Each structure stands twice: as C-alpha cells, then as structure tokens.
C-alpha cells in the first residue's frame, strides 16, 4: 500500500538527494525503520531491508519500493542479527545486487515491560543480544563497504566538496532515551541501549579518520508504533499525550527527517552524536509506564506482576 509523502517525509528535502546510493537497514520492516528507509528511497536511494520474518520483510520491501518509480528495494528475511554469518551473507547480497552500501541503519531491537523480579536471565540476555550484539554484528558485516563508500565521498577540508557526488560512509544506530533517567520495568532495554550508544561513539572515533560518520537517533514516544502501544497503558494515553511538552507524541516522519539530515550534506560534520527526537519528552519527570495501573511506586510495592509480558518464562532465582 503506497503511503502519501507527507506521512513519512517533510517537504524540506529535494528529490534526487540520494540518487545512486544504497541503504542497508536491519529491522527494516518495523514501523519506524520502514519510514526511515522509505524517505531515503523517495529521495533516490535503493535499499536492502533485513528481518527475521520472511513474508513480513519481503512485503515491506515491496511496499517501500512504491515510494519512487524504478526504485529497487530488496527484502531479506530469515536473518538473525545475533549471528554474524547471517548478516554477512545479507550484506554481501546487498552489494552484489545493488552495487554497494553507502548508509546503514542498525534498527533491530526488542522490548517489553517487565520488572527485574519477572525478568529471567535468558530474557535479559535476549534483549542484550538483539540490541547490542545485533548492532555490533551489523557494523562488522557492513563496515568494509562503509569505509569504501566514505573514501569515495571524502569531503575536502578547504572546498567542502566531496570527491564524488553525494555522501556516503554513514551509519545510524537507533537507540532510545529510557536510560537517561532510567525507568521501572525497562532495565533490560535501558542497559542494552546504553551499550548501543557506547558502540556508536566508539565507531565515530575509530572510523572517523577513514571518513565514516556514526550517530545515534533516539526516538521518543512515536504514534502508531508497537513500542508506544506496548509501553503506554491505554487508560493513561490521553493524559500522557496532553502532558508532553509539545502537547503531542512524535510521528515516524520526525524520525525519517532526522535520518535524512544525518545522511545528507547537512550532516557532513556531525559524528559521535546522539540526536534525540522526542519533543523534550525525556526531560519530563514521568513516563507512560509509571502511570495508571502501573503507577510508581505503588505498583512495585504491591508485588504484582506486570501484565501481558510476552514470552515470559519462570526464572530460577
């Protein structure tokens, strides 16, 4: 189903901005990541999106390709980001079919609400493996191609002109803001995202001399996403949205625009940074998961379990 441009991209950017460029995205069938990729495709890029579910990933690729006539979008399913060989094969196929990799979005992630008492060691490890190890494996599988692209598009320090048309050699890690203040029921993802942030900063330092930029986008509450629906109790959603500094939650377009900014010429000297796109939400004193039926500290003191924890197994303490 083709989406109207205004749903995923503002009118700020000119068409053809990413012509002949290739983006590789893990978690590319997700609500946020698919919007990021769709925006880049609309502006001229071709893409390869990665996921575990074959049907969902291939269907998302076909849908994203409608953003621009003639766009090439490959959907590769059955890829587990926790396994480097799986990602390496996907990256190699992307290069073979599309000609290279200029941009990478490491977006694969896992999250759910659970207290530490509910959180088994295996569940904790699973989130760490998907977010941190998955991001590292994505980097390892694509960094040779990013270095190659960065070399082609190296910006001259005097003229500020790249050696080849457009930009290249850039990676974005999709993170979160939960670990800035910490939040109950989010220990696993807070630890994971802190690790992702540290990884991105290290990439910026180690590969900056080769022309590669590495940055983080940390989305806040984004409408119509599984994350918001899962983490914000329905009985408090209206009150929560009203309490936000801008009086609304974000949209996937907000994240897609931030992505374009970092990958375009506008982001040529931006590296080692975390771009928080949340309307100042994280600076508020409360979060959705600590209100309503999960009000802090009353819910924790009750000893009750967080309801509807998906895939929960009893932990042996």
TrEMBL record:
Name this protein carries in UniProt: 2,4-dienoyl-CoA reductase [(3E)-enoyl-CoA-producing]
Enzyme category, top tier: oxidoreductase
Source domain of life: Eukaryota
Source species: Aspergillus brasiliensis
EC number: 1.3.1.124
InterPro entries: DECR2-like (IPR045017), NAD(P)-bd_dom_sf (IPR036291), SDR_fam (IPR002347)
Keywords: NADP, Oxidoreductase
Biological process terms in GO annotation: fatty acid catabolic process
